Amino acid sequence: MFKYLLHLGDNALILSQRLGEWCGHGPVLEQDIALTNISLDLLGQARMLLTYAGEIEGKGRSEDDLAYFRDAHEFRNVLLVEQPNDDWAHTIVRQFFFDAYNYHHCQALLSSADARLAAIAEKAFKEITYHLRYSSEWTIRLGDGTDLSRQKMQAAVDDLWPFTGELTTPNETDRLAAEAGYGVDLLAIKPLWDSKVQAVMQEATLQLPDTAWMQSGGKDGRHTEQLGYILAEMQYLQRAYPGQQW
User: What is the C-alpha separation between 93 and 116, in angstroms, rounded?
Assistant: First the structure.
């Protein structure tokens, strides 16, 4: 269960860090604040999951220890969430692809056999519901907007699509979690993710790529070089001056 909690916590933590990069740099103040709030939601979810992971591990590691003192190969997040912001279109498309997965995944976790994990899911579900509505609306607005906004959104869809397969493709940790009853059967939520993505893409007048080839490995600790840059910034203070507190 420790690895499963790391996977879920790392997804939230790394995407939170990516979205936090927009703070003070959003296209308009309202969206700057909106993304910062979503980042904080994800950070709160990461804290709950990593705290529980540390307790399950039983080695005395706190949420901060797991966030700041693991190396890249020890992180279990999917590759999608570590991809760079690039521009507003890439940020929105990345968020939408993940939110569509996270919504159905969290909804299924409400029935987890583990009471603590089900409680975390219940606390997070309202936030994740808003996240999906926000990213869906922006995907439609920009996809079915001007010629330039549609061009940028289509480029983002094409670039990020190869990282989406990992979301609903189970690895050994996912399979063990589903069999034990505390995790989610990813194969069961895949058609739900497909349906949501296709519906929004159609309304946004965007085309999904035909390629079936997908990147993978993040859930098993094999990451892109992007994660190293994220961790270098995120972990610097605690690595340089261990034990610091806010």
Answer: 31
